[in-house]
Design brief:
441 residues, alpha/beta, six-stranded parallel β-sheet, 14 helices, 14 strands
Length: 441
Amino acid sequence: MSMFCYQCEMSAPDGCGSNGATIGVCGKNENLARLQDIMIFGLKGLSAYREHLNELDEKATKNVDDVISETLYFTLTNVNFNFDDHISQLMKVGSAGVEVMDKLSNAHTNKFGIPSPVKVTQNKVEGKAILVSGHNLEMLEKLLIATQDKGINVYTHSEMLPAHAYPELKKYEHLKGNVGKAWFDQAQLMKRFNGTFVVNTNCIVPPKSNADYVDRVFTYKIVGIEGGNQIIDDNFDELIEKTLQCEDTNIDDNLSLVTGHHYKTILTLAPQILEAIQDGKISQFFVVAGCDAPGKAGNYYRELTENLPDDCVIITSSCGKFRFNDIDFGNVPGTEIPRYLDLGQCNDSNGAVEIAKAVSSALNTPINDLPISIVLSWMEQKAVIILLALFSLGVKNIYLGPKPPQFVNEDIFNFLAQTFNLHLTGDAKEDLEKLLIKKIA
């Protein structure tokens, strides 16, 4: 089906486009319908970050709220039929994404301090334990306060990994380590983890009907599942009681991960990085970031990163990094600069832009001419707002995968390819040959 819309009374039976029409009764064509879909998907991602920001600074969201409202109004029936206006509105949504991520990053560092690199134990669990998944750092802090001196250890999962790098969070001795990888391993993980499991934002996997761990799952705010336990008004009493009733968990896989390379920390290394670039010790930066999904397709990002030359630096964020963050990439030869830099959660993706802006200014070189390649993975709508944010900044030459978005048709993709030089990922080694500035000998 090339288009589908059934949002108004004028819609054709079963929806405009259901019988192959490319023009709706209102006059909206396939391209405009899909562009409006992208707006809605972008707003969903924008709303996720807006909610986190609103928890930390209620006064900071006014402009973002206005863009959300205006864009929703834009998608009403009989409002706008101009292609260029649709693109402009998408760029406005992207700009709001830049704003919300910048403000959220500042709100996090203002409240929890600036992260510093830290090695975190992976899959090492003992005693009574709570596993926290999601993105909400403020909720984690409240939980750490509530569980202090209760004989309970707290562990992170997936996008909560960067919490270990924030000074005001890692000061809690019972914040112990990370367990598991990306969000979709929850069911398998709970077979090994005997404690309770808290999901404080999106990325929950609904348990199957025969799952035996549902009574140990607690959800926070908008997150919910059938049979789960909802945490109300930050009252963790039931969670604590249930955790103490659970069997001890004992896991020791003797692994570790590194996180904590927030852009404000990386910028303190700017003189060393610039010197390494000028001396030819760093030839290229690869931003390999985004959200992950189940399946072998995501192995593309591991194959790409593990085949990078030693003079290339990897900048990452989001849960897609769990495809390759177990690899020890070491330092750039002849320097003390790590080859692997984990900016943090998906909402910390703005850090890559901040680093690029700093390098651009220091080298007096436009961002799109810098030795930086961007390879993104996408799964859901938060990735859409990140991509729109990059487009709104004029960033080009992005590779996107592992699968093409179905809501983009040929006309829209061709526009993005022509305007932003957007590519779809293919074979990792073949793409790497195209991306490398200094070819592998």
